[in-house]
Description:
By secondary structure, the chain is mainly α. 51% of the residues lie in helices and 4% in strands. Among the domains are: 4-98, no CATH class; 234-260 and 285-397, no CATH class; 436-514 and 549-630, no CATH class. The strands form four sheets. The protein has a three-stranded antiparallel β-sheet with strand order 8-7-9. The chain has a two-stranded antiparallel ribbon with strand order 1-2. It is elongated.
Amino acid sequence: MPGRAERAQIHVGSLPTICSVCGVNEQRKADAYLLVRLCSRCRRQKLVEWRSIQPADLKGLVLDSDQSCFNREMGLRHSIRKEVENVRGRWNELKSLGDEATLETWRETLISQRGDIVARCLEKTRQKWTEEVKQEWRKQIEERIRKLGYVIEFDQLPPAKQIRWAGFYNRTDLFTEEKWEKLKPRVFELIETEARERPERERKQRRSNRNFQLRELFSALQAELDTLPDDFLDLSVIQQTTLLVNWLPLPDYADALKWPIFQGWLDEEIDSVEIETRFSTQRDEITRLILDWGNQVRRELANMVREGLQEDGLVDVPIRPRLPVGEGEKDPFDNADADASLLLRADSFFKNEEYAICSYDVLILNSRRNFDGIDWSSCTFNSEASAIARAFLTSLGRPDVSGPEFNGSSGEWFQCGRCQTHRKAWHPMIEHYHLASQDWIVIQNHLSNFSDLGIAYNNTHRLDNIAASCLLIQLSSQAIAEIDIKYANSKKAGWIEQVKESGIPFPTRTEQATADESNTPQSEEEGNPEGMGEEEEENEGQGYEDEGENDEESEIELWQRDRFACKLCERAQLEAKMFVFMDMLALFDHLRNVHNITDPYLGLDVEDRESIQESPYLRLAGEFEGLILTWGVTVSYG
């Protein structure tokens, strides 16, 4: 006889003719409460009538059931004899010890375990019975529709119909002919609907398969025509430029489907072998169409630049760019296509639905990174960005630089000549001036506010502002390293050093606090200043108590996370994104250059929040204002 734990693992629906004790074959249902299946002989030998169990206290500690009794004993409950003996032995053992607490604990544990075992077994029995009922419904339904000449392939049904079909047999009530008659109209309605809709659905699926195969073949051919290697960014500028000069835009698959050569391929009932054969046969023609399309797009983009330059008043089309080459090297632009040469100038810029400012070479690289490719038809000439780039090149004395030279693997780095910024590449520097010009359009509506307040406002990023400093600075390797160190001010000491170098007076609370502490008398308790209670001592060193920070957290908040706002711009009612700055140095630069404030740090202790808030020129920016800047909405410019 299996023990209780073993019987808990017996699936009562399995081995329907095998006795759990002796293994004799006998058609017998499992007892869902005793968790066994017993033959007639074992029922006589292994069961004991429950009401005869002594002492009576044991009756609640053993499993009992009326499902394994003989017909003449209908209604009588029985328990497994071996289990009763085991429980009685343990009960007598604990009773003899006289420890009522241990006996009670054992009794409660046994009752709890018995309930859990029965509950689990009943749930398994219920689930199996439910599944058998569902299977019977399914069997009966499929058998009846098969006799009528219908066949339903469940896996071929669309999801919505699978749910409806499964609902016909996912039932917990027993199958009867009467219930079938009520269900039959709904079943045959689904069968007839499926018979009408299936041919069209299969036709669409075959078309979808052909479309997928053709897309794969077309993409594979385009991958062969794409001349840019995966390690493109690791190549030299000359190697990159050589590849870009010969590269052509590639059509999107959806555009290629409109070509006459592909007409009918998807709608004709042809198999995968026929599609592959057709594509292979016409591969040369498809290749020619792809290259013609690329040449046409490149020509249209170049003409767009020429027309835009003429509209901007430039009568003479710019000459082809030049690329510095070493001994034994050849300039890729010497024999390059005129359209490609014009597009690859450092002052040729476009805009489209995705990019406000973009150049041809950057669009090429993004078209390979972007899964959906580039919508070349949405590109238009960006007159303002191109004008900024031309002004930059004139300022640098290099009017005929190519884009790859500034954007390639050995590209140049720049810094704004009109404000405090980190180093920027060619594109971001143009965006910097572009955003400044966009903001100036808004600021002009507020100039009267500045005038009424007696506050000056200079458009420092105006391209024709000759009196101002140079537009941008081309950085040397040493200057790049110095700027990286300057802006890597993750520690307060590094930031303070920058402030000192900028000429800002730097009175610190740290030095004064040290002097005060050296003159403070000590109480008898070492380390506890006189008059400081335990609570005050505990809070010592937390910095600003109203913020609940310690010194280290306060430094991080002030020197790394805080943003600063210009009070003068705020008074003139500018938008927050136009007067919030990433750091105090940028704001000082703004105050000097834009508002003509010669001494923006007057009476300011840059370590003291209160001193910052009391400044007539700046304040700490609020949390939301800082988020605006973090999201990249704001550009800090002088």
